[in-house]
Design goal:
The structure is a single chain. It contains eight helices and 13 strands. With about 290 residues, it is α/β, with parallel strands linked by helices. The protein is globular and about 65 Å long. It binds zinc ion.
């Protein structure tokens, strides 16, 4: 079993399940499921170059199998940008994703487009090229392939509004996309709240998973990693709430040395957003 992911390789992880990690700084993971007579894709790549490489790898590995369905785990541009290129390459296939697609995708496209242009030297797409899902999913469903089954369910709203996560009950492998990438990045413009993320992780660790595929990491994780992340996140939130109870100012909050081991990406930006979130609005009033 492979646990280290090589960029731009379609690597078999389990029977009929392949993982493709893009090259570059985003390193998005796309999943290809092989059914008897067709293929399913879970999440595209961000950059044209990675999308073209994934399309070529699929066509080389499965020359006779059409792509029948693409599942978008959550509405961040790095996971759906490739849809128009897949349509060009494979023709008609259905696209499904979580609820509220247009609003969430339009917001994420606006925020992340600059990164697409920066990270993708070709960047031949325009926002008008992007495709919305054909169908929005708001209840659990099973995606059957080659005698196996991906049990998909919605988590959230959280870091990325709602996220479709998937468990393979036979091997207990879980796909959770961006709900785990080793730390938190809080940007309310694309759905992120620290309390939403904490709630999502508390739900996720109740799932009987062993191996974990995440949205951007270059190796597979374990359920113990998720439990540790969830505990670190809860300790971080508790510490924040203590600081708020003590009346900490925004400047003091930015300069505070946290006891928690939790990694906070872009700390100036994320901490400013966390200060806004925890300091100004009751959790029960917050929604997307
Ligand atoms: Zn992502």
């Amino acid at each position: 079993m492979t646990t280290t992911l090589e960029p731009q390789q379609l690597q078999q992880i389990e029977p009929y399940l392949y993982l493709f990690q893009g090259a570059g700084s985003f390193r998005v993971n796309s999943i290809v499921l092989e059914d008897h007579d067709c293929l399913y894709l879970i999440d595209t790549q961000l950059e044209d170059e990675n999308n073209h490489a994934l399309i070529a790898a699929i066509k080389t590995s499965f020359p006779t199998k059409p792509l029948r369905l693409a599942v978008i785990s959550h509405y961040h541009l790095d996971h759906y940008a490739g849809l128009p290129l897949f349509r060009q390459a494979f023709g008609a296939f259905e696209v499904i994703g979580p609820p509220d697609a247009r609003r969430c995708m339009d917001a994420a496209t606006a925020v992340i487009w600059e990164a697409y242009e920066r990270e993708s030297p070709e960047h031949q797409l325009t926002p008008a090229d992007l495709l919305y899902p054909d169908r929005e999913i708001n209840q659990p469903f099973a995606l059957a392939f080659s005698g196996r089954s991906f049990s998909m369910t919605l988590i959230g709203p959280n870091e990325a509004w709602s996220t479709l996560i998937g468990l393979l009950p036979d091997t207990r492998t879980l796909y959770i996309s961006d709900l785990y990438f080793g730390g938190i990045y809080i940007d309310p413009r694309i759905g992120g709240t620290v309390l939403g993320w904490q709630r999502a992780m508390e739900q996720i660790i109740t799932i009987p998973a062993e191996q974990v595929i995440a949205g951007h990491t270059n190796r597979l994780y374990t359920h113990a990693d998720l439990r540790q992340f969830s505990a670190d996140l809860s300790a971080f939130v508790a510490e924040c709430q203590q600081l708020f109870s003590a009346g900490i100012s925004a400047v003091e909050f930015q300069n505070h040395v946290f006891q928690s081991d939790l990694t906070v990406y872009a700390p100036d930006f994320s901490l400013a957003n966390i200060y806004q979130e925890l300091g100004s609005v009751e959790p029960s009033e917050r929604c997307f």
